């Protein structure tokens, strides 16, 4: 098996609603066999619109998708048996039991796992005889996942798999996803939880307004962000009392009353010089908080830049959608 094989290939993908509103605007990425790729983005960024095209639920308005070398829309029969899709809201009957639901789906799936095995994998074995309507939100997500795993998929699409799960359930799902990936399953995950992407993804992309605003390994995306130091100066001290900020390696700052926030790309140098200065001056920097750039930081920057430049765009899009509707 060629491990460099691109199981998912997306090139200049576009999706248009109502003939005019462009929700996906030229998205390009690839996912190799056994890789876990996460799509992140603000609300309405275009994650679901993109993933639905990858699942073959609609044809793209432009560009191309290849899943396992096939077009998932026009060659659905070649692709569908080899992929597993966990939808945001599975449409199962509330009156059936968990086991009946899984058996019903297994009847429509070629080479399905035994129902008991799928339920065991997601930790629902003890809930087999419970009616779906009696499951908690988190248990329903696990049932969605069991159904997606039934056909032993080579490619697994997970749309917000841990929404509604408690901390333990989330950890268990992450563990399962890791095991599946280690067994060679290629996974495409959308999520709102940044720590989920950080902990699971080999590579990720942050979507914004239908375009990829940042992509790479979690470490690469994080490294593009400045580190932050914040603290409170004692009474009688002001920002101007610090050594020149350029000498500290500071690239940006804010001061609000006695609270100071510094940004730097050289965390060790800035922190050391700041602490040496404070020590020599006999000053305690209360509430001192030193943190490296994070995925959250990258995400918030993209969202912030969006809200600064995007208000007009949002208005335009709304008008566009109203016209289309
Ligand atoms: N059927 C539709 N008709 C018209 N516009 C749509 C349709 N579906 C989605 N949109 C719009 O397309 C844009 C992208 O939506 P999408 O659901 O793909 O975003 P998302 O990133 O998955 O968002 P969320 O994180 O909120 O689930 C949004 O502006 C949304 O309002």
UniProtKB/TrEMBL annotation:
Source organism superkingdom: Bacteria
Subcellular localization, as worded in the UniProt entry: Cell membrane
Gene Ontology terms: cellular component: plasma membrane
Claim: ATP-binding is one of the keywords in the record: yes
Membrane topology term: Peripheral membrane protein
A Pfam family per the record: ABC_tran
One Gene Ontology term from the biological process aspect of the record: response to antibiotic
ABC transporter domain segment(s): 8-234
Protein name: ABC transporter ATP-binding protein
Natural source organism: Streptomyces sporangiiformans
């Amino acid at each position: 098996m060629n491990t460099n094989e691109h199981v998912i290939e997306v090139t200049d993908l576009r999706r248009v609603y109502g003939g005019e509103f462009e929700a996906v605007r030229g998205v390009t990425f690839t996912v190799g066999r056994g890789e876990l790729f996460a799509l992140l983005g603000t609300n309405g960024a275009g994650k679901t619109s993109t993933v639905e095209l990858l699942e073959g639920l609609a044809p793209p308005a432009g560009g191309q998708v290849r899943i396992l070398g096939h077009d998932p829309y026009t060659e659905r029969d070649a692709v569908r048996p080899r992929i597993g899709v966990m939808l945001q809201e599975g449409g199962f009957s509330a009156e059936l039991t968990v086991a009946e639901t899984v058996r019903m789906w297994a009847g429509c799936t070629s080479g399905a796992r035994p129902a008991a095995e799928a339920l065991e994998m997601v930790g629902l074995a003890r809930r087999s005889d419970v009616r779906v309507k009696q499951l908690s939100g988190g248990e329903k997500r696990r049932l969605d996942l069991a159904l997606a795993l039934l056909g032993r998929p080579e490619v697994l699409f997970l749309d917000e798999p841990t929404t509604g799960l408690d901390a333990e359930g989330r950890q268990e799902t992450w563990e399962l996803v890791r095991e599946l990936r280690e067994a060679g399953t290629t996974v495409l995950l959308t999520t709102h939880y940044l720590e989920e992407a950080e902990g699971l993804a080999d590579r990720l992309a942050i979507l914004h307004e239908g375009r990829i605003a940042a992509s790479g390994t979690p470490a690469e995306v994080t490294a593009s962000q400045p580190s932050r130091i914040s603290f409170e100066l004692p009474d009688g001290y002001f920002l101007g009392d610090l050594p020149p900020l350029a000498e500290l390696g500071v690239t940006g700052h804010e001061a609000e009353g006695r609270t100071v926030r510094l940004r730097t790309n050289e965390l060790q140098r800035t922190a050391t010089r700041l602490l040496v200065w404070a020590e020599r001056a006999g000053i305690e920097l209360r509430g001192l908080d030193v943190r490296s750039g994070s995925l959250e930081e990258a995400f918030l920057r993209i969202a912030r830049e969006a809200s600064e430049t995007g208000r007009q765009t949002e208005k335009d899009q709304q008008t566009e959608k109203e016209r289309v509707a």
